[in-house]
Amino acid sequence: MKKGLIFDMDGTLWDSSENVAASWTEKIRELGYNLPDITQKDIMSVMGLTMDKIADILFGSLSKDERMNLLNLCCEHENEYLRRHGGVLYPDLENTLIRLKEKFYLYIVSNCQSGYIEAFLDFYGFGKYFEDIECYGNNLYEKGDNIALIVKRNDLEKAWYIGDIQGDYDATMKAGLEFVHAAYGFGTIKQSVPELKKFSDLPELMETLCT
């Protein structure tokens, strides 16, 4: 049986919020906008939302066209910034991925812009661990649709999605998969689900879920 683990990015694999905030503020100042600095708290409050919703929240004082244009410029700069600076990986991430890859095919699905997942993979050299990736920025699909797309595209017979916020759970249910909560991340889940206190516990948890 071909089994897969599909991962969320922010709050699950890493925390890039500090560097994302720094990159956005840098771009806003470069463009001359009279807007407040983007803080780490701002970024953490919108992690997991689609890009159009983030633009509405953070740049709501601008017209829709202008806020989306600014968001796109910030995201392009963010990708370049993260390729140079990375983010904060959760403890034992790479060793855990190595262990998981012995029994599962690994994937990433995020609501991020195009190039964001690639910046993560390139900075740390993690591309060798993942079979496929997909994101909102590539096709404007909601996360549940992209999770289902990964399953179909890779002929997975059994798969789990690992994420940290309620929206991740909801998307997983829409895709018809089982969910694991990264409880160390940014959010809580209303439903009772398997949960991780730390990323490195995932191999042992999957042993119990697969029996």
Commentary on this structure:
With 211 residues, this protein is an alpha/beta fold. Helices cover 49% and strands 15% of the residues. It has ten helices and eight strands. It has helices spanning 17-31, 40-46, 51-58, 64-85, 93-101, 116-124, 136-139, 143-153, 166-175, 202-209; strands at 3-7, 14-15, 88-89, 105-110, 132-135, 158-163, 178-182, 195-196. It has a six-stranded parallel β-sheet, with helices on both faces. The protein has a two-stranded antiparallel ribbon with strand order 2-3. Helix 6 links the parallel strand 4 and strand 5 (132-135). The mean pLDDT is 96.
Question: Mind sketching the topology for me?
Answer:
Elements: E1 3-7, E2 14-15, H1 17-31, H2 40-46, H3 51-58, H4 64-85, E3 88-89, H5 93-101, E4 105-110, H6 116-124, E5 132-135, H7 136-139, H8 143-153, E6 158-163, H9 166-175, E7 178-182, E8 195-196, H10 202-209
Parallel strand pairs: 1-4, 1-6, 4-5, 6-7, 7-8
Antiparallel strand pairs: 2-3
Helix pairs in contact: 1-2, 1-4, 3-4, 4-6, 8-9
Short synopsis of the structure:
The protein is an alpha/beta fold and 211 residues long.
Task: Name a few traits of the molecule.
8 strands, six-stranded parallel beta sheet, 211 residues, alpha/beta
Q: Shape, please?
A: globular
Cα-based radius of gyration, to the nearest Å = 17 Å
How far is the first residue's CA from the last residue's CA? Answer: 13 Å
Q: Which regions are unreliable across 5 or more consecutive residues at pLDDT < 50? A: none
Q: Secondary-structure element sequence? A: EEHHHHEHEHEHHEHEEH
How many DSSP H or I helices?
Answer: 10
Strand percentage lies at 15-25%
List how many beta strands DSSP finds: 8
Helix fraction, binned, reads 40-55%
The neighbouring-strand order within the major sheet is 5-4-1-6-7-8
Instruction: Report the biggest beta sheet as strand number plus sense, adding barrel if it closes.
Output: 6 strands, parallel
Oligomeric state of this protein = single chain
What structural class do helix, strand and pairing data support? alpha/beta
* Mean pLDDT level: 96
